[in-house]
Amino acid sequence: MSKPTVGFIGLGIMGKPMALNVLKAGFPLVVHNRSRGKVEELVAAGAQDGGSPRGVAERAEVILLCLPDAPDVEQVVAGPNGVFEGISPGKVIVDMSTSSPALARRLAARAEALGAAMLDAPVSGGETGAREGTLSIMVGGDGAALARVMPVLQAMGKTITHIGPAGAGQVAKACNQLVAALMVEAVAEAMVLATKAGVDPLRVRQALLGGAVYSRILENHGLRMLERRFEPGFKAHLHHKDLRIALSTAREYGAPLPGTALVHELYGSLVAAGKGERDNSALITVLEGLAGIVAGTSRQEE
Amino acid sequence: MSKPTVGFIGLGIMGKPMALNVLKAGFPLVVHNRSRGKVEELVAAGAQDGGSPRGVAERAEVILLCLPDAPDVEQVVAGPNGVFEGISPGKVIVDMSTSSPALARRLAARAEALGAAMLDAPVSGGETGAREGTLSIMVGGDGAALARVMPVLQAMGKTITHIGPAGAGQVAKACNQLVAALMVEAVAEAMVLATKAGVDPLRVRQALLGGAVYSRILENHGLRMLERRFEPGFKAHLHHKDLRIALSTAREYGAPLPGTALVHELYGSLVAAGKGERDNSALITVLEGLAGIVAGTSRQEE
Fold first, then answer.
1. Which domains are seen in chain A, by residue range?
2. Which of A158, A197, A257 has the CB atom closest to B249's CB atom?
């Protein structure tokens, strides 16, 4: 059986390495991206230029999306010259963006009315996971459609979990992002406490890594915080956006998330200070501002 | 060189398996505990009964403590019939309790005035780590004294980190406990969000375990929360106490810990509801109370 043509829309920090892995797995690939440079890189690697979301949907059987936020997804899928205009029965749209569960359910229903299917399949594992093809992919939507696109997803991810019906993948991703945010906050508070108490925060981090609270976030974000490496990585304003989705989903279902709400506010103050493009580990600078360590650190971080 | 006699005071959930590991490593052991039953268990295993903290300090060269809270440490070390009354020059007291950095510094200064040394050496790794001898031990105090007791600590722990001067071990432990608390809160919020949104929380946990937010707390506490297994484990009122220490230390040094303060309040409401003896994973029931899931869960958990 010949491999289906795959479409990929959104060639950013995550999307580009994911698209390259699809290509490497031997799928014919047709791509689109708002800025042209990334398209040309993919064409040089063997992909075709779809010209528009509609063009990609006309030429591919499986259409993958990896976009920054829910409004982008709505525009690219349901807007003028969008995926829905090029879709035909039997095709499967897979939205790997971190978007809202409510939008995922709405778009899946419209895709079904067009005879197609749409899955929400956001990912965890960061740029490294995207590059190495080891992402955790959380899928919401029709199981039969998932089975058909499984070989494509396996080119990008290691753990592929069918969470439930349409929107369930985005709920799982919201859970992932709130857990990550509270872990970043935890590491930031620990590093600030150690520093203010006159104790070497690197040794504290080292001791904690050997115990029950080991995590990749303590390892990687902890080191970034102490070495003041705030180039992204995962941008603070995107994590802020993800927490907004978690909180609005929680409001919809009546779930109280006091810790998530707190970290959302702290990220908000980072974004308001014009630092939203920094890595999310820059959250520590908000606490340092509160602690009056600013004078000591602002030189290092600017 | 013959092995020094080791004293052990406080044979609770953590202390008992730690004392047994010291015994197993071949150190002569003399013990004391407030309730007699644990003393008899250790005597049956080959230890001697010291009769009192003073009696232990008179007979042992290295005196280990593993007590619930700072006031217990102060009473056992500096109170009537306490360790200081039995101590003599050259002996080393090692406080493995989770206590306050300020008390650790005060007692270390008094021990030094008596010609002895006192280290703060709290541990991470839980009951499993205590039993298997794989604890992470965070040490504050004199480096020469640490070198002398190192073989004893190696009988109980795998990662032994000299963090800094007296009190530094307790600062590191405060950092560890606040990180753990925020991670428990994160897992609880994720499980509540998934449940309220009608998504299988077990599948969400599974997907998250495969990604960047993997932690033993997500694995173990997450499962406890979903299976309603709230027998301790690590008691909620002790975690509440640890956060109180972190917050008072933070206040002393001017470090703002907004996330820690929030979880301290949530644990406080669990304790106030008479549920402080439950495992700290019962923190999820506080969120469920806020969410109005109480009706559905109270039958299961009582």
1. 6-165 (3.40.50.720), 171-298 (1.10.1040.10)
2. A197
Q: Which residues of A touch B268 (CB under 8 A)?
A: none
ipTM above 0.95, yes or no: no
Q: CB neighbours (10 Å) of residue A89?
A: 8
pLDDT truncated to tens, each residue of chain A (302 aa)? 689 999 999 999 999 999 999 999 999 999 999 999 999 999 999 999 999 999 999 999 999 999 999 999 999 999 999 999 999 999 999 999 999 999 999 999 999 999 999 999 999 998 899 999 999 999 999 999 999 999 999 999 999 999 999 999 999 999 999 999 999 999 999 999 999 999 999 999 999 999 899 999 999 999 999 999 999 989 999 999 999 999 999 999 999 999 999 999 999 999 999 999 999 999 999 999 988 754 444 434 43
Closest A-chain CA to B208:
A176
Count the neighbouring beta carbons within 10 Å of the beta carbon of residue B231: 10
Q: Which residues of B touch A125 (CB under 8 A)?
A: 211-212
Global pTM reads 0.93
- Between A185, A197, A255, which is nearest B253 by CB? A197
Which one from B16, B91, B173, B241 is the annotated catalytic residue?
Answer: B173
Instruction: Report chain B residues whose CB lies below 8 A from the CB of A291.
Output: 254-256
Distance from CA of B38 to the nearest CA of A (A): 26
The values of phi and psi at residue B71, to 5°, are -60, -35
Helical segments of A63-215, H only: 70-78, 83-86, 101-113, 126-132, 143-154, 168-196, 201-209
Closest C-alpha among A30, A58, A101, A88 to residue A245: A101
B255 vs A197: CB contact, 8 Å cut-off? yes
CB B92 within 8 A of CB B119: yes
Task: Mark whether A173 is an active-site residue.
Answer: yes
Of the partner residues A175, A211, A252, the one whose CB lies closest to the CB of residue B190: A175
